[in-house]
Amino acid sequence: MADGSGPFDIVVLGGGSGGYACALRAAELGKSVALIEKGKVGGTCLHNGCIPTKALLHAAELADQAREGEAFGVKTRFDGIDVPGVLAYKDKVINGLWKGLTGLIKSKKITVIEGEGRVIGPNRVIVDGQVYEGTNLVLATGSAAKSLPGLDIDGSKVITSDHALVLDRVPTSVVVLGGGVIGVEFASVWRSFGAEVTIVEALPHLLPLEDEANSKLLERAFRRRGIKYELGARFDSVKTTDTGVVVSLENGKTLDAELLLVAVGRGPVSAGLGFETAGVTLDRGYVLVDELCRTGVPGVYAVGDLIPTPQLAHVGFAEGILVAEQIAGLNPVAIDYDGVPRITYSEPEVAAVGISSAQARERGFDVVELTYNLAGNGRSKILQTQGEVKVVAERDGRVLGVHMVGGRVGELIAEAQLIYNWEATASDVAQLIHPHPTQSEALGEAMLALAGKPLHVHN
Ligand SMILES: Cc1cc2nc3c(=O)[nH]c(=O)nc-3n(C[C@H](O)[C@H](O)[C@H](O)COP(=O)(O)OP(=O)(O)OC[C@H]3O[C@@H](n4cnc5c(N)ncnc54)[C@H](O)[C@@H]3O)c2cc1C
């Protein structure tokens, strides 16, 4: 490795959640690793995704609390949003984490190569004219915001989440195209900051991938918050004007706003990167892999948003670790993607793990369901939040899914994911004591009720 170009045990292309997790775990297992990154290590999640959005959502929560202090007997006043202040807070969080990650990568003696890489063979990547060779190659170039045919992103009136995260003002009004996680989270932030918001979703519900009961609860809560939505409504066209945009829907309606946020999903970053020269198979830009993230070409793997698995940072982490452990000769088990917890961090939050009632029936389970209303939970009452915990289980069998809506319920999904992934039954969990008064009791109460011994349940 005299010139630092290899051969390395592993060359990782892309330093986001999937790529850097793979690099860290491989280095821990004694492998020599080159990590190629054209932007900043940490990728979308740290710089343009999970972390900045959650910082904005926290600022939004404080804004709501300032408005609502009176309901708790506290004298507060909402005087508005200092956007530069919010952006500075968000950037401080990102920079602190980035510094920590950079130090961690350095401490593991991973060779970081700055620049755009292109694959020129199953184990070779070229960056600025220099070729890096690895016994193994891990593709982890992630994803980017998509648009619709004929819908041009201009970055000022028609924007994506990347632009929204650095917007220098609170817009007076926004149309959010797409009622998935990203659209719903921005709608929530902007409403708390004082904007008029309308979400346009082509499918019949917001968060269409969630259990329908959760989607309906979110819709009700958003309606109460004054967030408007058009469901089952397809986008037709957008015209920019001096003051903003006019969005036309196929149903004939038009919506005027200052901004259009396009949040119609994210697509893989693979075009022009030479992946075909490595011999891997692509489908609509996604790299196809088996359940162990193997591309079919010996020694070539792909992880994260680049492959057609759930686009979540923790999925990227898990896939990166899975690949590193395989390369190191360990025998890791395939990921059960149903067992991956997912959270939408809006107000209220929506969190789930496992499968929905509808999916459980489709798969032939004899399904039982239990819905516990947060109205019966002391801590939720104190926080003045409404919502539900719904448990889907196999009759006399394991818990198949947990679906929740309510303030802070995202924190409860960690317990639910243990229940699902350890294949626990309601009776297994019912004997475990939950601390009082916490929101975790709602999950405990749901399990007690499902096990046939309800405590605080009104019939
Ligand atoms: C607004 C938003 C909010 C989100 N919120 C959450 C959340 O709350 N929780 C959650 O789990 N997930 C969230 N996500 C999703 C999460 O960010 C992604 O799932 C995750 O970042 C995927 O990791 P990755 O490593 O596959 O790709 P990325 O993080 O996109 O990383 C890929 C990296 O590869 C680099 N790269 C690409 N091409 C090249 C090349 N040719 N040469 C060198 N480097 C290259 C890129 O610069 C990038 O750093 C959010 C996403 C967005 C957009």
From TrEMBL:
One of its GO terms (biological process) is 2-oxoglutarate metabolic process. Binds 1 FAD per subunit. It catalyses: N(6)-[(R)-dihydrolipoyl]-L-lysyl-[protein] + NAD(+) = N(6)-[(R)-lipoyl]-L-lysyl-[protein] + NADH + H(+). This is Dihydrolipoyl dehydrogenase. NAD(+) binds at G178, G179, G180, V181, I182, G183, V184, E185, E201, G265, D305. Disulfide bonds join C45-C50. GO terms for cellular component: cytoplasm. The active site is at H436. Its cofactor is FAD. Its EC number is 1.8.1.4. Residues 340-446 form the Pyridine nucleotide-disulphide oxidoreductase dimerisation domain. FAD binds at K54, G117, T141, G142, S143. Residues 8-320 form the FAD/NAD(P)-binding domain. Belongs to the class-I pyridine nucleotide-disulfide oxidoreductase family. InterPro entries: Class-I_Pyr_Nuc-Dis_Oxidored, FAD/NAD-bd_sf, FAD/NAD-binding_dom, FAD/NAD-linked_Rdtase_dimer_sf, Lipoamide_DH, Pyr_nuc-diS_OxRdtase, Pyr_nucl-diS_OxRdtase_dimer, Pyr_OxRdtase_I_AS. Keywords: Cytoplasm, Disulfide bond, FAD, Flavoprotein, NAD, Nucleotide-binding, Oxidoreductase, Redox-active center.
